[in-house]
Amino acid sequence: MVRRPRGARGDSGRRGGSGQPPTLLGLDGVNKRYGSFEALKDVTATVRGRVIGLLGPNGAGKSTLLKSMLGLLHFEGTARVLGFDPRVEPFRVRDAVGYMPESDSYLPSMTAVELCTYAAQLSGLPKSAAIQRAHAALYFREPGGQALSPGGGLLDRPEAASEARPGAGPRSGSALPR
């Protein structure tokens, strides 16, 4: 899920004269190696639209590409995400892009409220707002459902959060109060 931040460079987010959607991702010769293993080899693409999904078998490089584009991994080549260079402005990229990691994690020493508050603070919310958002996320969860991704998916900007797993978030179509 992508949210265009204020002041983002590149496409304005509106369709241009050609009717093309905005450029989300521009890649030119992107490479990523883990030792001698080439996880990404000369990836060149222009991706337009508002939401993307990557499909492929295990080991195809999907997670490596996403982590590289979020500025979490060093890579070679040229890349732009919503007009930002993830190596130079990784925090601007991560502020604009909603990302759900492939595996959940938690800190066993924390209560649910503490974990949600911590995740919201990592997303940039002040402590008082993080506590309120944590309580709201836990209150609005479905019975037996998950109130958030541990990465803060429903805490940082609940109006734009979603998860791909059935039953893993709030009721379909609902949004948490700000």
Give me the secondary-structure topology:
Elements: E1 23-34, E2 37-48, H1 62-69, E3 76-81, H2 90-96, H3 112-122, H4 127-139
Antiparallel strand pairs: 1-2, 1-3
Helix pairs in contact: 3-4
Q: Could you please describe the fold and organization of this structure?
A:
- This protein has helices spanning 62-69, 90-96, 112-122, 127-139, and strands at 23-34, 37-48, 76-81.
- The protein is of the alpha+beta class and 178 residues long.
- It has a three-stranded antiparallel sheet with strand order 2-1-3, covered by helices on one side.
- A hairpin with a 2-residue loop joins strand 1 and strand 2.
The SS-based structural class is: alpha+beta
Q: Measured on Cα atoms, how large is the radius of gyration?
A: 18 Å
**Largest sheet, spatial ordering of strands:** 2-1-3
Helical element count?
A: 4
Span between termini: 19 Å
Principal-axes shape call: globular
> What percent of the residues sit in helical stretches (DSSP H or I)?
10-25%
- Main sheet attributes: strand count, strand direction, barrel closure: 3 strands, antiparallel
Can I get a quick summary?
With 178 residues, the protein is an alpha+beta fold. Helices cover 22% and strands 17% of the residues.
Question: Top keywords for this entry?
Answer:
178 residues, alpha+beta, globular, disordered N terminus
